[in-house]
Design a protein that fits this description.
0% strand, mainly alpha
Length: 189
């Protein structure tokens, strides 16, 4: 099943986790530590108060300096700008309709971030074809990100809140990879 189909079929928790996982893997571009998104992840667990999501989101935006820096002119790095926009676009209320739009946008943005940072050339004109399942000529970093996005959605679809821990592990692995890419890029600059 393609990533686009998985997003179309996901429930609210799966959609929010998908968007959050994309953001989590890209947070090194904002200088965020490994724990900055933990309260948002915890809010997806059974028994958590979904009404707290907006306040937790506002706190996270403030910690990462996203609340007040959204102009493209203020940010030179296109990849970092995409990540800031992902966080800024997160819905303040957890609902399936808003989460679907956010998860879809985060999917595209995260794949684009990985494409921008991958030194290997990606053979597609856009990431949309990758999301639809056309993977020939895909660069390694984009391919790994696509696999992670699919895995997160499959875990939540199969296991519900029981899949959150594994989804977080998948996201943590991706964050480490991206952190290494960002570090290597900084050394070469």
């Amino acid at each position: 099943m393609s990533l686009v189909e998985l997003i179309a079929q996901a429930d609210e928790r799966g959609l929010v986790a998908s968007g959050l996982a994309c953001l989590d893997r890209c947070v090194p571009l904002l200088g965020g530590d490994d724990e900055v998104l933990r309260p948002l992840w915890a809010n997806l667990a059974d028994g958590a108060d979904a009404g707290e999501w907006g306040a937790l989101l506002d706190k996270t935006r403030a910690q990462l300096g996203v609340a007040d820096v959204m102009d493209a002119e203020d940010i030179e790095d296109e990849a970092a700008l995409l990540v800031r926009r992902m966080l800024a676009a997160a819905p303040g209320v957890r609902s399936a309709a808003e989460a679907r739009v956010w998860a879809d946008g985060c999917s595209v943005a995260s794949l684009q971030v990985h494409r921008l940072l991958d030194p290997a050339e990606d053979g597609a004109d856009s990431v949309d074809s990758r999301r639809a399942g056309r993977t020939e000529g895909m660069s390694p970093l984009v391919a790994a990100e696509l696999r992670r996005q699919i895995t997160v959605l499959e875990l939540l679809a199969e296991h519900g809140s029981g899949g959150l821990r594994r989804a977080l592990e998948v996201s943590t692995e991706g964050r480490r990879v991206l952190r290494a890419v960002v570090s290597r890029r900084a050394r070469q600059a």
